TrEMBL record:
It is found in: Cytoplasm. This is ATP phosphoribosyltransferase. Residues 212-284 form the Histidine biosynthesis HisG C-terminal domain. Feedback inhibited by histidine. Signal peptide: none annotated. PANTHER family: ATP PHOSPHORIBOSYLTRANSFERASE (PTHR21403:SF8), ATP PHOSPHORIBOSYLTRANSFERASE ATP-PRTASE (PTHR21403). Catalyzes the condensation of ATP and 5-phosphoribose 1-diphosphate to form N'-(5'-phosphoribosyl)-ATP (PR-ATP). Has a crucial role in the pathway because the rate of histidine biosynthesis seems to be controlled primarily by regulation of HisG enzymatic activity. The keyword Nucleotide-binding applies. Its cofactor is Mg(2+).
Length: 287
C-alpha cells in the first residue's frame, strides 16, 4: 500500500486534502483523524505536522508527502521535489523596521528571528554572512519590537502581518515557496523499480487536476478561410480539433486554452469573425 504524508493543520492542510479529493482519493472527514485508508486506491494517508513531513519521507518510512518547498529546505532532508502543486504560494523574506536596514548586505553581525533556522542558516553559509539566529515558533513579526532581534526572516503572503508590525521587506526574496509533492531522493542507481507502486499513478492524477484547474476547453465556429488565423490564437496542447460544419465553408474548432487567457482569446476570435464561442470547464484529464 502506498503511504503518503499530508499536512494535518495549517495553511496547506485543507487545499492538500481538496486536491487529493479532486484526484479521486478518499480523505478524512474528521479534521482530528491522523490516518485515512483508501482501500479502493490502495493508499494510506498519514496526517502530520507540515514541518515533520520531509523527515518521514526522507527516511523512507513514508513513500510520498505534500509539504512546502521552504519547509523541505528548512528540514535539510535530501528529498526530491516531484511536482509543484500550485497552492500555498508565498515568499520567504527578510524584514526589518522601516529605515533601519537598506539591503541584505547589512545583515552581517545582526540578530535574526525566524521559525525557519534551516533556510536562514543555509543562506548565511552560502553568502558567508555571520549573524545570530534567534529560533522562534511563530508570531515572529513581534520579535523586533520586543527587542530579541534586529530583523526577521519569515513567510510573506499578502504582507499584511509585516505592515501591522511596522516592518518592511529588505532585498530579494530568500526563496519562493509553494506546496510540493516530495519523494525520497533516488538512490545512487536512480532505478525505476525504487519508485513505490502507485506513485506514478498519483503523480499523473495530480497533474490531471492541475491541468483541469489551469485550462478550459474553447469551442467555436469559424469560416474555413480564417482557420489558420483562428488556430494561431488557439493552438491547443497537441493541435486543435477541426471538424466540418454542415454549413458550407465553415468549420468547428476545439482547443484547450489557459483559463487566464480565455476572455482575451474569445474577444480576439470574435473580432476575427468566429461565432458560437463557448468555454467549458475541464473536470479532469490525462494529457
Ligand atoms: N499566509 C501564510 N502563512 C503561513 N504559511 C504560509 C502562508 N501561505 C503559504 N504558506 C506556506 O505554508 C507552509 C507553512 O505551513 P504551517 O502549517 O507550518 O504554518 P501555518 O500555516 O502558518 O500554520 P500554524 O502557524 O498555525 O502552524 C509553508 O510552506 C509556507 O510557505
Ligand atoms: O503576509 P501575510 O498574508 O500576512 O501572511 C504571512 C504571515 O502569516 C503566517 O503567520 P500565522 O498566522 O500562521 O502565525 P504564526 O506566525 O504563529 O505561524 C506567517 O508566519 C506570517 O506571519
Ligand atoms: Mg504560521
Amino acid at each position: 500500500m502506498l503511504r503518503i504524508a499530508i499536512p494535518n493543520k495549517g495553511t496547506l492542510s485543507a487545499p492538500a486534502s481538496q486536491m487529493l479529493r479532486d484526484a479521486g482519493y478518499r480523505q478524512r472527514t474528521d479534521p482530528k483523524d491522523l490516518l485515512c485508508r483508501d482501500e479502493a486506491n490502495n493508499v494510506e494517508f498519514f496526517y502530520l505536522r507540515p514541518k515533520d513531513i520531509a523527515t518521514y519521507v526522507g527516511s523512507g518510512d513514508l513513500d510520498l508527502g505534500i509539504t512546502g518547498r521552504d519547509l523541505l529546505v528548512d528540514s535539510g532532508v535530501p528529498a526530491s521535489e516531484l511536482l509543484d502543486l500550485n497552492f500555498g504560494r508565498a515568499t520567504f523574506r527578510w524584514a526589518a523596521p522601516a529605515g533601519t536596514l537598506q539591503s541584505a548586505d547589512e545583515i552581517n553581525g545582526r540578530r535574526i528571528a525566524t521559525a525557519y533556522p534551516g533556510v536562514v542558516g543555509r543562506y548565511l553559509t552560502d553568502n558567508e554572512i555571520k549573524a545570530d539566529v534567534v529560533r522562534l515558533d511563530g508570531a515572529v513579526e513581534n520579535a523586533v519590537r520586543l527587542g530579541v532581534a534586529d530583523l526577521i526572516a519569515d513567510v510573506v503572503e499578502t504582507g499584511a502581518t509585516l505592515r501591522q508590525a511596522g516592518l518592511v521587506t529588505i532585498g530579494d526574496p530568500i526563496m519562493q515557496s509553494s506546496a510540493i509533492l516530495i519523494s525520497r531522493e533516488a538512490g545512487p542507481s536512480g532505478r525505476e523499480e525504487e519508485t513505490p507502486a502507485g506513485a506514478a499513478q498519483l503523480l499523473r492524477r495530480l497533474q490531471g487536476v492541475l491541468v483541469a484547474r489551469n485550462f478550459v476547453m474553447l469551442a467555436y465556429d469559424v469560416r474555413a478561410d480564417l482557420l489558420e488565423q483562428a488556430t494561431g490564437l488557439t493552438p491547443g496542447i497537441e493541435s486543435p480539433t477541426v471538424s466540418p460544419l454542415h454549413r458550407e465553408g465553415w468549420v468547428a474548432v476545439q482547443a484547450m486554452v489557459q483559463r487566464g487567457d480565455a476572455h482575451r482569446i474569445m474577444d480576439e476570435l470574435y473580432d476575427l469573425g468566429a461565432r458560437a464561442i463557448l468555454v467549458t470547464a475541464i473536470a479532469n484529464c490525462r494529457l
